[in-house]
From TrEMBL:
Organism: Acaromyces ingoldii
SUPFAM superfamilies: GroES-like, NAD(P)-binding Rossmann-fold domains
Domain of life from the UniProt record: Eukaryota
Keyword Ubl conjugation annotated: no
Protein name (record): GroES-like protein
Single Gene Ontology MF annotation: oxidoreductase activity
Cofactor(s) it depends on: Zn(2+)
Record keywords, A-Z: Metal-binding, Oxidoreductase, Zinc
Keyword Nucleotide-binding assigned: no
Alcohol dehydrogenase-like N-terminal domain location: 62-193
Amino acid sequence: MAVNAASNLAQKVMGDVETSITASHASDEQKSASGDKMQALTWQGVEKVALKTVAKPEIMDDEDVVIKVTGTTVCGSDLHLLHGDILQLKADDILGHEGMGVVESVGPKVKGLKKGDRVVSSFSISCGSCKFCKEGLGSMCEKTNSSSVMQALYGQRFSALLGYAHFAGGLAGMQSEYCRIPYADHNCLKVPDGVSDEKALFLSDIVCTSYHSVVDVGFQAGQTAIVFGAGPVGLNIVQWLLAVFDAKRVVLLDSVQNRLDFAKQAFKGRPLEVVNIETDCEGGNVVKKLYELEKLGWDVAFDVAGFRYAKSLVHKAMRATALETDTPETLNEAIMAVRKFGRISIAADYAGLTNGFNIGALMEKGIMLKGNGQAPAQKYMKPLLDDYIVTGKFDPTLILTHRFDFSEMDKLYYAFDKKLFDEEKGVGILKCFVQTRHSSAPAPGMPTLTKVP
């Protein structure tokens, strides 16, 4: 039945007429009356991205700003676009949902920003006035994304995302020299002078996403936690758990040893254990290993791996033949390994349908499975900046390993996808600061410019 449902839904969605974006802020065709140009990273098909010269964005609506991008980066979610796992991508779409910059031009109805302000933008774009925005849930905005395909898949739409396909609103992204930000008063945060670009940049997404994952699942001081995935968001979750939320014990799982080694060093002296799922688990039995570490099961699990990481031949085959879009294997391990009446937080991306999900164990063990959704960054950016970053309680640059130039943006996608280890620096590529021609020099103590390995 699950296979048939997946097939039927896939046929329905793929047969849907390509969305005609009608909301004023949901389409971002790059046009420039002045004829000005810029460099941008564009999607050119599955496994192919390329830098191109494109039209520089201009004010399209009264509540827009256009910013000169001074810092951007590549996110694990961008790799779904690289691999063609997200619907409604078009050739020449401008990618990138994390970025910051300096305001260059301002729409006539923008009240809180002016030319020259240094700002970081939320990765999700919301209107600020609909029911969900008024509840502080900007990532669930009703106005900024009119994809009929998302409506068919999910029953409702979430907000537009910068640089993340027409499925998510069709807005041009931040992996560019300039970017238009709609509803700028609601989506941009002014960065104070004492905060470096490196510390501000990741408020656009992963700082807020990781924090939201912890609070959304109701994690409490003194509890134990499993974190599946030692990428940037997983490592941020570990930092929140250990430095802010007073976790009793955390275990971090991944198959990339250099990322686990990084975590051991970064959180030395804290109650963190790391497990390589390929070398530390007898017969690949992750659940058995987790019970060896915590006999009654773990209080909370965080899935920061997501839908692409199929392990078994069965699920690899089903994904390859479109019998499922998502593998449930990490979630099934989490369901098995948490304690009775434990909780699971899904921070990682899941896109569609899966087969073999262990719903019986979920029900019988009384487990709460909490999808976090896209994090409402607008709600979190300022309080996290003021209460944790400025005060030093949370350091977003802990996982900043490299600084690269925008001219290598396309190369960085492939290096990040392969989780390359930089032999010269002795560290794997985790989170990067990508500078443009508008950027300032690196802040003291931050990574200096190097070439993509």
